[in-house]
Write a structure and sequence with these properties.
One of its GO terms (cellular component) is extracellular region. This protein is mainly alpha-helical. It folds into two domains: about 45-175, Peroxidase, domain 1, CATH 1.10.520.10; about 185-315, Peroxidase, domain 2, CATH 1.10.420.10. It has 14 helices and two strands; from the N terminus they run ααααααααβααβαααα. The protein has helices spanning about 1-20, 60-70, 75-90, 115-130, 135-150, 170-175, 185-195, 200-205, 220, 235-245, 265-275, 280-285, 290-300, 300-315, and strands at about 210-215, 255. The protein has a two-stranded antiparallel sheet with strand order 1-2. α11 (about 265-275) crosses α13. The protein binds protoporphyrin IX containing FE and 2-acetamido-2-deoxy-beta-D-glucopyranose (NAG) (3 copies). The site of one 2-acetamido-2-deoxy-beta-D-glucopyranose (NAG) has 3 residues, from α7. One 2-acetamido-2-deoxy-beta-D-glucopyranose (NAG) binds near residues 226, 227, 228, 230 and 233.
Length: about 350
């Protein structure tokens, strides 16, 4: 009798095991972030188990789609990470950047080079088929940014879920996202408004270890005379000349990390030590006394960068989230508010 029960239990276990394995993303680095996620009030309502019952396959769906797209075009990984940042920087992580109507954030000049909207639409369509009216676009974008990071060679982190989608998106507010011409004081101020500190600023800027920039974002560095009409001394002269050659048109692209453009590593920081930062905001992190010690620490400690990047990305994903029954909605189509 006892033997029979053992067999039944063993059989049930084997039935369930492959199932639960399929629900976890295939590629993950289980290194745990060192500190707890931010404790901003609204973010307290987020939970990694939020969709455990209502949409258990969510993360597997997101992972499969992001994986397939990146296989075809690896440049989509940095674009999705940036899209998530631009979402969270304006009205919090509420998918306001995805709304596609006249005068929305997405239509603003500052959003011109944002990409990845079609990937999010494709994930949303699949998620709606499997779990109708359950998962927000803000959560999908957050999970996609996490998976894009892993697939680019970055760290894994658990994504807390439960964000609602906002109903407001204003193009004028898209200009709140830093464009690369700011000084450090204003960057610190912008991040502070989001509940992010100087460590988050320097660590999250490390996302520029992959991806690219349009030449229009750095054009001002080509004509950067200071008081004595000498060139900007904070950029390596050979690097500057090479950028000029690559930037015949403002619509051309250049890599954000000149040494290892497709590898998620600390070269972004070691570049800054060699005056090889692309954006002037990148390079300024190494000349301002409030941020330069952090740049040097991250440049020499890869493990510190990956573990803190995971922590700071969770904080970014928690910025001013809409939670609870009364706030926001679960959009049916990420491009439009529900009617
Ligand atoms: C600290 C302030 C920041 C500034 C001033 C800034 C500025 C920029 C600029 C100007 C570009 C190039 C846009 C273009 O002309 O095509 C860019 C690209 C990018 N940014 Fe940032 N950014 C900042 C923070 C962040 C953060 C916090 C993240 C994510 C955690 C991020 C992720 C990216 C990525 C991955 C790209 C490459 C996008 C692609 O290849 O499509 N940035 N950023
Ligand atoms: C930084 O930029 C802001 C906004 O453009 C400006 O008001 C401020 O004076 C600048 N600060 C420094 C130290 O240059
Ligand atoms: C301009 O650059 C020169 C050479 O790098 C430097 O010595 C000088 O202090 C700078 N002047 C100003 C006003 O920043
Ligand atoms: C996971 O992260 C740790 C620490 O960042 C790193 O040492 C390890 O190689 C990573 N493993 C994988 C499979 O990426």
């Amino acid at each position: 009798m006892r033997l029979w029960w053992c067999c039944v239990i063993a059989f049930v276990l084997t039935l369930h095991l492959p199932n639960s394995a399929a629900q976890t993303p295939r590629i993950r680095n289980k290194t745990k972030p060192r500190t707890a996620p931010t404790t901003r009030p609204a973010a307290d309502h987020l939970s990694t188990a939020y969709y455990a019952k209502s949409c258990p396959n969510l993360e597997a769906i997101v992972n499969r789609k992001v994986n397939a797209w990146i296989k075809r075009d690896s440049t989509i990984a940095p674009s999705i990470i940036r899209l998530h940042f631009h979402d969270c920087a304006v009205r919090g992580c509420d998918a306001s950047v995805l709304l596609n109507h006249r005068g929305s954030e997405r239509s603003a000049h500052a959003s011109k080079t944002l990409r990845g909207f079609t990937l999010i639409d494709e994930i949303k369509a699949e998620v709606e088929r499997r779990c109708p009216r359950t998962v927000s676009c803000a959560d999908i974008l957050t999970a996609a940014a996490r998976d894009a990071t892993i697939l680019a060679g970055g760290p894994f982190w658990e994504v807390p879920f439960g964000r609602k989608d906002g109903r407001v998106s204003l193009g004028t507010e898209a200009n709140l996202v830093p464009q690369g011409h700011e000084n450090i004081t204003s960057l610190i101020g912008l991040f502070q408004k989001l509940g992010l500190n100087i460590v988050d600023l320097v660590v999250l800027s490390g996302a520029h270890t992959i991806g690219r920039s349009s030449c229009s974002s750095i054009q001002q560095r080509f004509s950067n005379f200071n008081g004595t009409r000498k060139f900007d001394p904070s950029i390596d002269i050979n690097y500057l000349n090479s950028l000029k050659r690559q930037c015949k048109l403002g619509t051309n692209f250049v890599n954000l990390d000149v040494t290892t453009p497709r590898t998620f590593d600390v070269a972004y920081y070691t570049n800054l030590e060699k005056k090889l930062g692309l954006l002037s905001t990148d390079q300024l992190l190494h000349s301002d006394s409030r941020t330069s010690p952090l740049v040097d620490a991250l440049a020499s400690q890869a493990q510190l960068f990956t573990s803190q990047f995971a922590v700071s990305m969770v904080k970014l994903g928690n910025v001013r989230v809409l939670t609870g029954k009364m706030q926001g909605e679960i959009r049916r189509n990420c491009n439009f508010v529900n009617s």
